[in-house]
Design brief:
By secondary structure, this protein is of the alpha/beta class. The chain contains 8 helices and 11 strands. Strands 4, 5, 6, 7, 8, 9, 10 and 11 form an 8-stranded mixed sheet that branches. It has a 3-stranded antiparallel sheet with strand order 1-2-3, with no helix packed on it.
């Protein structure tokens, strides 16, 4: 048998597999916008990831007032022994404030950037907060223990997840059966919020994406000046294919 005769069906299988994978992917692609990646999920362009070089902006003195951090912290559904995950912790602006509120609990500070991880570890030691554990995640998973988390929260982070579908599924596995997920996102609906459009989200878009991954909105807090306060519970009602792309 000629080698060429063997190559034809082999090439056909490659084409079929590639086409099938593309059809199963939840993402499409376009020309990137100024602050976007060109990768589109459920009609939304995923934003570029903010570099840790912007740590001074995260730690700016005016942030407490501008975002009413005191009210945001007071509104978190916490108990003294809660196990919490700050996903995309950055400089730990929320991490260390939450840790002081749950002296009998634990805060996992999840980051993927090495400079942020080093910063968080040093600050945890300097502040003598033994209940903070720094975790290095990846673009598709926070690397958290299964069924361990009471509350996971992301502050201005979700819109930058490069693989939101896979990440939400991994996060769901880390949550306890009654665990909750909180997203703080700059308000797309409010044109006076001076944030780049790719880094803002609407309630409607967040709800659509999280419902597709098995989460139900249980609280839509409108009390913060710049951000949505969106609390979800997991239902587990999502479709997961072993062949699907993250």
């Amino acid at each position: 048998m000629k080698i060429s005769n063997l190559l034809i069906p082999f090439c056909f299988l490659i084409v079929v597999h590639t086409t099938s994978a593309q059809e199963q992917s939840p993402y499409t692609f376009k020309k990137p916008s100024a602050n976007g990646t060109g990768k589109v999920y459920m009609g939304r362009e995923i934003a570029q990831v903010m570099s840790f070089d912007g740590v001074e902006w995260l730690e700016r003195n005016s942030r407490m007032r501008e975002e009413n951090i005191t009210l945001a912290l007071a509104s978190l559904p916490l108990k003294s022994n809660s196990v919490v995950a700050d996903v995309g912790a950055g400089s730990g602006f929320y991490t260390f404030r939450v840790a002081r509120r749950i002296s009998e609990g634990k805060v996992y500070a999840v980051e993927i950037q090495d400079h942020a991880i080093a910063y968080l570890k040093k600050k945890a030691v300097d502040d003598r907060l033994d209940n903070v554990k720094v975790i290095k995640g990846t673009e598709i998973t926070p690397n958290l223990p299964a069924n361990s988390i009471d509350l996971a929260f992301m502050v201005d982070v979700y819109h930058e997840l490069q693989h939101p579908k896979a990440y939400l599924e991994a996060l769901s596995r880390a949550l306890k059966p009654n665990g909750q997920l909180l997203l703080l996102e700059y308000k797309e609906e409010d044109p006076t919020v001076g944030i780049k459009p790719e880094h803002k989200m609407s309630v409607r878009q967040v709800k659509k994406e999280l419902e597709a991954s098995g989460f139900k909105l249980v609280r839509n807090g409108t009390f913060l000046p710049l951000q949505h306060f969106l609390l979800f519970e997991k239902t587990g009602n999502y479709t997961q294919s072993p062949l699907s792309n993250p």
